[in-house]
Amino acid sequence: MREVAIVAFGQSDHVRDSAETSEVEMLMPVLHDVLEQTGLAARDIGFTCSGSSDYLAGRAFSFTMALDGVGAWPPISESHVEMDGAWALYEAWVKLLTGEAETALVYAYGKSSPGDVREVLTRQLDPYYVAPLWPDSVALAALQAQALIDAGLTDERALAGIAARSRTAAGSNPHAQLRGAVPAGEHLVTPLRTGDCPPIGDGAAAVVLAAGDTARRLADRPAWIRGLDHRIEAHALGVRDLTDSPSTRLAAERAGAFEEPVDTAELHAPFTSQEVVLRRALKLDAPDSTVRINPSGGALAANPVMAAGLIRLGEAAARIHGGESDRALAHATSGPCLQQNLVAVLEGER
Question: CA distances (Å), 317 to each of 33, 193, 229, 266, in order?
């Protein structure tokens, strides 16, 4: 199979409110950053793919405005997914595998500050039986957390430990929205406290993909995508076991994650309880495990909706670029209670 690698990664500083900055203004510095890292110009990119949500922007086809940041001339080969940017990366990866392009620019962005993101995300739910009840994303995550506690798989103290570890790790991440000590706080939705939940914020991210010798020319140490797969759970929450994630496990298996140990894992777990589920599904929960989980701080430190999953792949790739990792796992999710899951295995040159 043709080799494809992530050769550059960039992201914005994630903030609670970017009211004075448009999506294009937020995105353009990130796009310039990844192109400068590779020495490429926009005209050198063979394929461009983006991930965003019109629901967050509050207007149809809002992603066409973001293309102003890419440039309208010369004409480009472009696509868009109404999903997290990790799925845009998947589309671009397939495009490069087919040989239809040598390089690809993938970007994603999200501004959650203008509206109530908890209400906006209810639009993902089954429109007949669940959405009319208006259970928001935090309430559904709390149901999942309570199911884990009832099953004896975690407790509130363990969840607090995950939050503390993530915030501490974010201390070395200049782009993180939250760092340092986690406030104790009251329950936001029992059993989840404020520190168990992701911050609401705005942000953008981008990566450049390249194939074969082109990747070797553009990066000193490309992060080769050795496997990439995504799967989905049943849409109806009532027919799922919320304490498990078979789709994550299957995606990891198909991506080759279990063939060799990984040294780093960037997990897209917006809630502490979801990290518990993912670690079990990905076989990362052994007491003696030395895998570094979310050294960037993860989604608990910065969670720009529609970009947080792409950031997990970018953060994993960046550690390979810098020589801190040889084999990394990256995970992205979308939908309530880990409904859709994507897993990638990245490796440095051997």
Answer: 16, 31, 17, 10
Helix count and strand count (H, E) for the chain: 11, 12
List pLDDT tens digits, range 259-272.
Answer: 999 999 999 999 99
Tell me whether residue 327 is exposed, middle or buried, using C-beta atoms within 10 angstroms of its C-beta: 0 to 12, 13 to 18, 19 or more: buried
The two three-digit tokens of residue 176, written as one number: 């993180």
Q: What is the DSSP letter of 12?
A: P
The one-letter amino acid code at 347 reads E
pLDDT > 80? residue 350: no
| Alpha carbon of residue 16 to chain centroid | 18
Residue with tokens 């897209």, as numbered in its chain? 268
H or E element: which one contains 327? strand 327-334
Q: Which residues of 3-27 are buried (b: 16+ CB within 10 A; e: fewer)?
A: bbbbbbbbbbbbbeebeeeebbebb
Of 115, 180, 177, 162, nearest in space to 293 by CA: 162
Q: Give the position of tokens 């789709």.
A: 247
- For residues 293 and 310, give the distance between their C-alpha atoms in angstroms, rounded to a whole number: 16
Model-wide pTM > 0.85: yes
Q: What is the DSSP string of 199-222?
A: PP-EEEEEEEEEEHHHHHHH-SS-
